[in-house]
Each structure stands twice: as structure tokens, then as C-alpha cells.
Amino acid sequence: VQLQASGGGLAQAGDSLSLSCVASGGTFSSYVIAWFRQAPGKEREFVAAINRGRYTFYADSVKGRFTISRDNAKMTVDLRMNSLKPEDTAIYYCAASSSVIVSNYRNSDGYNYWGQGTQVTVSS
After folding, report:
1. Pairing of strands 90-97, 118-123
2. Torsion of CA 6, 8, 9, 13, to 10 degrees
3. CB under 8 Å to 48, separation ≥6 — which residues?
4. What are phi and psi of 85, to 5 degrees?
5. Mind listing the pLDDT tens digit for each residue in 49-97?
6. If we measure between CA atoms, which residue out of 16, 119, 7, 124 comes closest to residue 65?
7. Which of 24, 61, 77, 98 has a Cα-to-Cα distance from 113 of 20 to 30 A?
8. What burial letters (b/e) apply to 48-81, b meaning 16+ CB within 10 Å?
């Protein structure tokens, strides 16, 4: 499966942005889709994931502010980001896996397909 992330940009603290991850190829509905992010000088970190049953998982740092959703017919996963903070500034990547288990959702090693990343910059 190939993934294409889009929707990043510039925002001010408190603003909202939405990211989209569009997939092509593969059986999209069978994949766990996740968003990770990487800030300059930091390791890639988990943001959110949604599985086949549409159960969602969030990092504590974004819980209550970000919402992940999927549309299997359109083969897309969206990440709605509200109440943005400067610390949300990062390159955001979507990732997919058909075999990752729930205990490994937050580990980037569990995903074998990655999009190219989209930059999100939040100013204070």
C-alpha cells in the first residue's frame, strides 16, 4: 500500500488543522493506520492510531485535542487537530500495517508502510 499525507501548514496556538492520509493499493479496511510525528532533534513519536474496528488510540499529549477517523470507501484517514500548541510543531507521518498488534500500536517499528510526511508549524 502507498500512503500520501497532506494538510499540514502554518497555524497559531489555539487554531485547528486537519491532516489527511490517502492510501492506494492493498486492502485498506484491513490496515491499522497511525499518525506519528517528529520534531527537530527529537525521535519520532506516536500520535494516534485507528484499527479495523475503528477503535482509536491517542498519545496522552494529544488526547482530547486530536481526533483520528477513517473512511474505508475513500481509503483515507484524517487527523483533526484542535487547540494546537507550539509543541505540536513537527513533521507528521501516516503509517499502515496489516499485522501490528494492539500492544505495539504506539511503536513505529510495528508499521511497514509510511507516507512522506507533512509539516505542521504552530506559532505562539
Report:
1. antiparallel
2. 160
3. 34, 35, 56, 57, 58, 59, 62, 66, 68, 79
4. -120, 155
5. 999 999 999 999 999 999 999 999 999 999 999 999 999 999 999 999 9
6. 16
7. 61
8. bbbbeeeeebbbeebeeebbbebeeeebbbbbeb
Going by pLDDT thresholds of 50, 70 and 90, the confidence category of residue 26 is confident
Name the grid cell of 107: 511503536
What is the spatial distance between Cα 33 and Cα 70, in angstroms, rounded to a whole number?
A: 9
Looking at the chain, how many residues does it have?
124
β-pair type (118-123, 9-12): parallel
List all residues 6 or more positions away from 23 whose beta carbon is below 8 Å from its beta carbon: 1, 2, 3, 4, 31, 33, 75, 76, 77, 96
**Which residues are registered as beta bridge partners of 17?**
81
Amino acid in position 84? L
Sign of the CA dihedral with 36 first, then 38, 44, and 47 last: negative
